[in-house]
Protein 1
Amino acid sequence: MDLYMDLLPNDAIGVILGFLSIGDVYSLKKVNFSLLERVRLCQKDTRYLMDIFWGVNVKNINLIGRDYSLPYEPIVFGSMTVKTFRKFYRHFHPKSFTINGFTSTLNLTKHLLRNNLGMDIVIHVDQKNLFIVNRTNVSLYAEHLTIYSEDKIPIDISMQILKLMNQRIKHLRIHGEVNDMQFVFNMLPKCLQSLEIYSKSGVHDVRSLLRFVELQLHNLILFQCYEVCSHSECVNYHAITSQIKKCSKFPRKIAMAPFPFDAIKWCEKHGVCIDIQKSAFFDFEFNDVMNHFNNT
């Protein structure tokens, strides 16, 4: 083993290291001092590790960051503590981080929510971290924030405990179930440029729609936020269009589900780009909507 490895050039050793498990690499270092120095040198030039293709255990984060020069942020599995995350952040400078029960301890959740690191945050608000989030002095300044409101916790409550109205977020995306769209509007953060709300079910009161449309955002997506029946006699079918026609200001781009055809034409008349890929339409006017876009 010693003889064969000593005969190999460093670039060949580097290729071999990329295919070895992390444990085997450190076993190789124990063979002799000469091999230890060569492997250590080659590790710093190793930019690919097959062993972490599907992810790296959180326990090995410091080893990977310290001994290798990976040009990418590895997928990590396991729950990070504050101490582990600091090492991860120092080595890889992640642009985003997902906070949930599988990726972070409750202490790390608290740490990330009150220490602004400039990262994009994805947070799952559930029964496990609801109490700790509610007790945290949240301070967020992020380009992108995504919230998943789970375990029957309404979107409204998640926004309230995160104190979103006091945060500075440019692009906000929320998934869950909404109870009160007017309350959601009141909880919106500062500096908002785009808003996406994906609700499992909508509210019947559509009066808040006007306020969302008049925010003059770059991009607005309201998916199933307002409850509408599937026939043209539904009161809200006409109410949605009526609210949009009252608007004096519009976003640059809009998507809705459902999106009445008359409301689409009114938005286009005022120079709004319709995102048809993220919109949904009523069955009884689907063909008319498709023909309209195909002919424009």
Note: DSSP finds 14 helices and ten strands in the chain.
Protein 2
Amino acid sequence: MSKNRFKDTKVGKFLLSNGSSIVNTLGDALPSNGVLGIVKGLINKDDTLPSQTKEEALKLLEIDIIEMQEVTKRWEADSKGSKLTQNVRPLTLVFLTIAFVIGWFLQIEELEVVKELLTIVFLAYFGGRSVEKIKNR
């Protein structure tokens, strides 16, 4: 699941560049099927956007929805595969955490890259797991 805010998606950037107020309202929301469904309704009802801009925004919205669904499918396939594919995300998280802690203790100055990677993996792993649990309820 993408961790970009709505304003960072393809359709969000497009609407922002075309002066739509939708991005101001939902800009910091995390995109999900529900949020993107709301956006679709708002685009259709927005009288300030020309019809050509609406059509292009709806196409970009569909691309964002498909991208989000493909990421979910990939993660589901990983969880149903072999032991290695099931454990890649946790092992990556453990490896980067250990590398960061060792680098911190050794006071390595070039630790910023590991810190950024650890942040991305941490958010993807725990954020993705939270979304999966909420969807399965």
Note: DSSP finds six helices and no strands in the chain.
